[in-house]
Write a structure and sequence with these properties.
mainly beta, ten-stranded antiparallel beta barrel, 176 residues, single chain, Lipocalin, 3 helices, 14% helix
Length: 176
């Protein structure tokens, strides 16, 4: 059975650097370790939204790990950040990558190129059924790539109108 990202990207996954391909095509379950630089939510409302979605609340540089497991037709990603793990579920629907974070679901269109994979947010739903305006996603960014040392890298930022920055983290993982 093809990996979730292979199903969504097809042969375009071949354009991504080797560490990105390996992370997405290694037999599951798998655990990858590395480091991240985290920025916590700023405002009281943003901190509340982060807590509801289960997003990381730590500030600063941390050692961390990511566990990826098969979950039905999708994957369960557990990001082991302090003080508590951040868990999301990923699956495919209508050619889009869907990610469930607490009561919210974000749908992404994936783009692979020589630098990595860009997760373009295209839809947001709350409680799986309530669609939200797409303009709310303008501050959501996610990208995977490779750094100068050849390590798998990730960059994630979630900022929303009125709330401001809810979470941001970037770092690297050992992927071999």
């Amino acid at each position: 059975m093809a990996s979730l990202f292979r199903q969504l990207l097809g042969n375009a996954l071949e354009r991504a650097p080797a560490p990105v391909r390996v992370l997405h095509e290694t037999a599951l379950p798998q655990r990858f370790e590395g480091q991240a630089q985290m920025r916590a939510a700023g405002s009281l409302l943003a901190r509340l939204a982060a807590r509801i979605a289960g997003l990381p609340r730590h500030e600063g540089r941390v050692s961390m790990a990511v566990t990826i497991e098969r979950d039905g037709e999708g994957e369960r990603w557990t990001r082991h950040f302090p003080p508590a793990p951040f868990v999301s579920r990923l699956w495919s629907r209508d050619g889009l990558l869907c990610e469930r974070l607490g009561p919210s679901e974000i749908r992404f269109r994936l783009h692979a190129d020589g630098a990595g994979i860009v997760w373009e947010p295209v839809a947001l739903r709350v409680f799986g059924v309530l669609p939200m305006p797409a303009l709310l996603l303008r501050g959501v960014r996610a990208r995977e790539g490779v750094d100068a040392q050849g390590r798998y890298t990730f960059e994630v930022e979630a900022s929303f109108p009125v709330l401001g920055s809810v979470a941001a983290y970037a770092g690297w993982l050992h992927v071999e």
